[in-house]
């Protein structure tokens, strides 16, 4: 079975945009591949400056993925920092990458353009990411479009390594662009933690309903016909409900007795149907950090022999002692 691998930065508690845009598609793909799913805590360290949030977010992310259907006996779920072999490969790869290529890195360039002085972690971010992937011979990497440049670099450096040190030593990975829809937030803009417009995944039902009621809609009176197309409520509803149910909402909104309040209630119910049953699992998992540590460690133990084998192959190929 081919391998698929992806990393999730523990920078926030997952929201509905992460669920529909990343978690749901990744779990579908996981049915066809041997899947590696890791919490990219070293990548998060380029911005996170507080140990408590690193810890909390790591547990939030792990519990979310598990509650959403990751079966840890089938999918390798681990912390990036539990397999330090990744740094040995990072160095070897760094020696094959021109600084010019890293200077063209989008995040690094953006940082400079904003007048910031990006840290060396931001500069080297794509090298570590290439190592994440190449360490496990991953064939496909499901990522959002924003990560394409990083994938290109991972492919380049794998090819260069093979060209310089020997054919077929590293697997050249392929990006699998998740054609996930852009999930709008409460204000209609892209849902994002940093914009304060997100719908939390596992908040209590009451909070979830209150949040849904805050979605910005048109202000026409109840009797006036409303156009579903282009509204945030309807866009979100379509991502969750069946096509038939979506059509019902669209037609109801045109009638005098059905308004945005009704549409929001329907959206809340669709969300509750999707997330409600998982909330209890999430709460139980999240309350047991020792159990989460145990699961993540077991995941790392399982993938570590694969990492070691790659490092052995690489050390030998470059003329070091294979250990
Ligand atoms: P945020 O924008 O809240 O910081 P991240 O950048 O950490 O979220 O995104 C993590 C994953 O979730 C990525 O794969 C990204 O494509 C996906 N994602 C985040 N927000 C959305 C959204 N509004 N719609 C679709 N996918 C999203
Ligand atoms: N850079 C990715 C992001 O910001 C996270 C990530 C780190 C990753 N290492 C990876 C994704 C390896 C895929 C493969 O979302």
How would you portray this structure in words?
The protein contains 13 helices and five strands. The model has no long low-confidence stretch (mean pLDDT 96). The protein has two domains: 3-183 and 289-318, HUPs (Rossmann fold, 3-Layer(aba) Sandwich); 202-283, Tyrosyl-Transfer RNA Synthetase. The strands form two sheets. A three-stranded parallel β-sheet has the order 1-2-3. By secondary structure, it is mainly alpha-helical. Helix 4 (85-94) packs across helix 7 (120-134), helix 9 (205-213) packs antiparallel against helix 12 (260-286) and helix 10 crosses helix 12 (260-286). The chain has helices at 16-29, 41-44, 51-67, 85-94, 99-103, 106-113, 120-134, 148-165, 205-213, 232-240, 243-253, 260-286, 289-318; strands spanning 3-8, 34-39, 76-79, 140-143, 174-177. It starts with a strand and ends in a 5-residue tail after the last helix. Bound molecules: adenosine-5'-diphosphate and tryptophan. Adenosine-5'-diphosphate is lined by residues 9, 11-12, 17-18, 21-22, 144, 180, 182-183, 190-194.
């Amino acid at each position: 079975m081919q391998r698929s691998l992806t990393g999730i930065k523990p920078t926030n508690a997952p929201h509905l945009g992460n669920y529909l845009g990343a978690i749901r598609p990744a779990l579908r793909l996981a049915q066809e591949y041997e899947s590696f799913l890791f919490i990219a805590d070293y990548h998060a360290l380029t911005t996170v400056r507080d140990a408590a949030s690193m810890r909390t977010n790591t547990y939030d992310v792990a519990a979310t993925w598990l509650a959403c259907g990751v079966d840890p006996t089938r999918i390798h779920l681990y912390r990036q920092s539990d397999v330090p072999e990744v740094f040995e490969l990072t160095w070897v790869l760094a020696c094959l990458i021109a600084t010019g290529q890293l200077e063209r890195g989008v995040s690094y360039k953006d940082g400079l353009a904003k007048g910031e002085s990006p840290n060396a972690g931001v500069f080297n971010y794509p090298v570590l990411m290439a190592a994440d992937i190449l360490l496990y011979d991953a064939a496909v990497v499901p990522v959002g479009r924003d990560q394409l440049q990083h994938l290109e670099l991972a492919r380049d450096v794998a090819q260069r390594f093979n060209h310089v040190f020997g054919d077929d030593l590293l697997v050249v990975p392929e990006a699998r662009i998740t054609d996930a829809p852009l999930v709008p937030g409460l204000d209609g803009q892209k849902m994002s933690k940093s914009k304060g417009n997100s719908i939390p995944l596992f908040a209590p039902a009451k909070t979830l309903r209150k949040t849904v009621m805050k979605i910005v809609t048109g202000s026409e009176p109840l009797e006036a016909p409303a156009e579903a197309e282009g509204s945030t409520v309807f866009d979100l509803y379509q991502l969750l409900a069946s096509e038939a149910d979506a059509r019902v909402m669209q037609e109801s909104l045109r009638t005098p007795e059905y308004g945005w309040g009704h549409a929001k209630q329907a959206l809340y119910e669709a969300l509750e149907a999707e997330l409600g049953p998982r909330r209890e699992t999430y709460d139980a998992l999240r309350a047991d950090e020792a159990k989460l540590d145990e699961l993540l460690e077991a995941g790392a133990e399982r993938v570590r022999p694969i990492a070691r084998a790659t490092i052995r192959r690489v050390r030998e190929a470059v003329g070091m002692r294979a250990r």
